[in-house]
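User: quick one, fold this
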Amino acid sequence: MLKPLSRTLSAVAIACLAGCSGIAPNLPGISLGATVHGQVNGVSGSNLRVGLLGSKEAGQTPQELVSAPVTGGAYSLDLPGSPRLDLMSSDSESIPFALEVYQDNNGDGQYDEGDTITQASAANGTFRFFTEDGPPGSYKAGWNLYQNGSYTQTFDTAVNLTA
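Assistant:
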């Protein structure tokens, strides 16, 4: 008899805490990793980066999942196969993440509390990772972008960020 995926993930997650460097395992049958790319408009400065940032609770300093430099006004961000376990809100979904443009003030290549988040936004779109498919017509297992009232796993169109 097959165990539900959420129970299986919980068992794997607990086992992983001891030696997987905090990365959730890649699950068979789930479309993992994607590339998000686009233009950054209306923001200037040196050391600009686009990061996928999120926090478990309102008011907490956002945590960066992944980021990429802005080069020539463009970015290309490779999403990991899955988020770190501490960024999962339950055993079946991650916290919401937003694409943010930030000034990497100390030049260390990652978002820190002293860095400045700009006013550029992705038109209120948020990214979430799910370990299993939702109801028909909703999210699918893997990375999803929620924008304009619906989920998509199509990242081949640009996600432009404008201040």
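User: anything notable?
Assistant: The longest helix spans residues 5-16.
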